[in-house]
Amino acid sequence: MKPTNRRKFIATSAALAAGTAASAIPLKGAGNKYPVIHHVFFWLKNPASKEDRDKLVAGVKTLSKIETVRELRVGIVASTEKRDVVDNSWAVSELMFFSDLAGQATYQTHPVHLEFIKNCSHLWEKVIVYDAVDA
User: How confident is the model at residue 33, as a pLDDT?
Assistant: First the structure.
């Protein structure tokens, strides 16, 4: 290999290696497509009613029709170990992701959300909401 070709090869290899390494470094907020998080916990009026829980789960799932909701996860209490820091007093949770705060604001007044409240609010006794943005 000629010295010039060898230098070019080494320089190109070094540049590619550096670029590959730099792209693998996690950046703050990188990979978080939807930085606005809306997490809601519901306590049922009739906590022993599987039927009420299932109705609420079905109602929450309708919220995915709202165009600004990027992702929706619906959960029920997991049977994990009991510890002082674990609150398993709730029945249903909703975890939503939005692209921005404007999308979350649109969700709040959207007809599908208002219909959900109208149709399902009789099922819950208490609701707590945690809204957050990526730090």
Answer: 86
- The sheet carrying 124-133 orders its strands as 71-76, 92-98, 36-44, 124-133
- Residue 60 CA to residue 80 CA, distance in Å, equals 23
As a whole number of Å, the end-to-end CA separation of the chain is 51
* Cβ contacts of 7 within 8 Å, gap of 6 or more: none
Kindly state the DSSP code that residue 106 receives in the 8-state scheme: H
Domains belonging to the chain, first-starting first, are: 36-133 (3.30.70.100)
Residue with tokens 């007044």: 109
17-42 residue pLDDT tens? 444 333 333 434 445 789 999 999 99
Whole-prediction pTM:
0.75
